Amino acid sequence: MSVWWQIAEAVANRRAAVSLRLHRAAVQFASVITRVLACAVALLASVALARAEAVDASAPVEIQLLVRPEHASQTDRFEAAVRIAATRLSDWFGPHSRARLTVVDVPWTSPLAGHAEGDRVYTTTRLIAPAGGMELERPTVRAVAESYWQPAIGAQFAWLVGDLADYSAAKIVPELFSLAARRPGYAYAGDRYFGGFVPWIIRSAPIMEDSRIGHHVWIQTLERYIGWPAMQAILSEVHRRGVHAPMTPGDLRDVAETTTGRDLEWLFAQVAPQGPAFDYGVEHLSVDTVVVRRYGDGIFAGTSAPRAASFDDRGPIEIAVTFADGRVVEERWDGRDRFKTFSYDAPASVRSAEVDPRDVIRLDAHRTNNSRSLAPSTTRASAKWAIRWMIWLQNYLLTCAALV
């Protein structure tokens, strides 16, 4: 019995040894294949970019595209984004100071994407980039805008150039989306899976505006406060002067005050990087009382001058109070105090209140506390969470199906 046991043990050991050698050979083979593929990818990446020159008679600048071979099918989208961005900037704020723009398609992980160095603008895209997702157009338009504003602003104020570029891109991208999707909006919402390779977008409900909060929202706030015609006149003058002598934030403030005839020092003094946070909201709501609060340190006062009287606290912040009978009362507040209380003696009770209903103060960091309501909203909340759960379940099932 012991002899047969020894023979079986020897056979088993032999098989284990063979399996181990086969496993090691497979690992080595996989390692070699991985290195070969990596070398092939590196070789393709090192190959000169596909060169596609496009000169549009309607464009204010000559456009040269340097697109990677794997992105050649998206050349028309690159060209359209650059042409429309350059045209809108020239139409709104004055002729482009550069005669030629060279658009370089860099890897999507490159920190250069969305930025510019002189007349060379850097953008990026993915191998699969659905139209309407705006993953190609957003960095392209931003880079063109940065190239446009660089000559007009001093080099030491790179943050201001970036803010102007982001602001300009936020106004131009919706036009590109409308051309691609044949409907108004900013972009389709979506996500990426399997390491970011496979995109998935929701075409039923596009995003209507850029939901990403950046430092440039102070320029959007200024525009909504003074109006687009005044904003266009300000930036046109900044660009015109900046071509001859680079402008500073103080110069921009002076131009804005001269153009509008308003005191804007109170706003410009708070918008530098690491400036105070703006946050207004409704602190308390009852049937006859509304209490609003300034949560942040930023003050949207509308003027630098002190109050004429202690009771005179009307200002640019709008507060909409809705009563049970449907009547809406608009209150005004200068936002300087931490709290402001509005009391009412009316036949109908207060139903809801909202601070800044027109979304003028884009600087407001937390919009969720801007409104309160005494009416129950259980249906709305349950529908919101049900939709979230269904989207999660859909993503989970798609992932499981892909792995089967």
Walk me through the structure.
The protein is an alpha+beta fold and 404 residues long. The chain folds into 4 domains: 1-47; 50-275, Orthogonal Bundle (Neutral Protease, domain 2); 280-373, Immunoglobulin-like, CATH 2.60.40; 379-404. The chain has helices at residues 2-46, 75-93, 137-149, 158-181, 217-226, 228-242, 249-260, 265-268, 378-403; strands at residues 50-54, 62-67, 100-105, 116-117, 120-123, 187-193, 198-207, 280-285, 289-294, 317-323, 328-333, 339-343, 350-355, 371-373. A 5-stranded mixed beta sheet has the order 1-2-3-5-4. The protein has a 4-stranded antiparallel beta sheet with strand order 11-10-13-14, with no helix packed on it. Helix 2 (75-93) links the parallel strand 2 (62-67) and strand 3.
